[in-house]
Amino acid sequence: MENKIKELRYAIVQSVPVMLGYLFLGFAFGLMLNDAGYGFWWAFFISLFVYAGSMQFVLVTLFTAGASLWYTLIMTLFVNGRHMFYGLSFVEKFKKMGVTYPYMIFSLTDETFSLLCDLKVPEGMREERVSFYISLLDHCYWLLGSCVGAVAGSVLPINTTGIDFSMTALFTVIVVNQWMDTKEHKPAIIGGAVGVLCLILLGADAFLLPALTIT
């Protein structure tokens, strides 16, 4: 039992950077969802069972636009399809984790993937258990932020203008960091050019899915 507590404490320390981001972004998602007319329980269950970060922000837009189920499914595949490639590098490791195997697959977000890739546990700790704690903690951070945001939006006069830009800002930071960390910029240039071209030709309401399909 004492060893499990040490592993949990270690996982908490490792997950602090994700906590700071997820609480804020989850809060923003909760505010957006409440502003769209969906309350606390929607925020709770979407974050519990969908847990898709950027796709949850897109989902609010799809809800308000009355998008069809098929369009939502296709959009989800393109926006979060990268997670399938993340999972390939962890399949064998997750298989050894017993009953937590399905949850580890479900909870593998961008940020959790980054933490698990760099994870080096101290001697005497089980890496599998620490990995599970990190994944669970990250999920809880997002869930907490979403619920608090939804509640705050329902009881406080919060101006949500511009709050939907928070995920755009996050992706902008990620793109800038990746640009600075690599010497090969062709994929980013091609992706940006395709996005701008589709925006010009198809308009703001219809460009996203074709742009994702092409790139």
H/E series, N to C?
HHHHHHHHHHHH
| Uncertain parts | none
| Morphology | globular
Q: How far is the first residue's CA from the last residue's CA?
A: 49 Å
- SS content category: mainly alpha
State the share of residues found in helices, binned by percent.
over 70%
Using the CA coordinates, give the radius of gyration. 19 Å
- Strand content bin: under 5%
Task: Give the count of helical stretches.
Answer: 12
Question: For the residues shown, what is the average pLDDT?
Answer: 84
For this structure, the quaternary state is single chain
The biggest sheet, with number of strands, parallel, antiparallel or mixed sense and barrel status, is: none
**What is the β-strand count?**
0
Describe this structure in words.
Helix content is 76%, strand content 0%. Helix 11 packs antiparallel against helix 12. The relative contact order is 0.16.
Task: List the topology elements.
Elements: H1 2-35, H2 40-49, H3 54-65, H4 69-80, H5 82-88, H6 91-95, H7 101-106, H8 110-117, H9 127-155, H10 165-181, H11 186-202, H12 208-214
Helix pairs in contact: 1-9, 2-9, 3-4, 8-9, 11-12
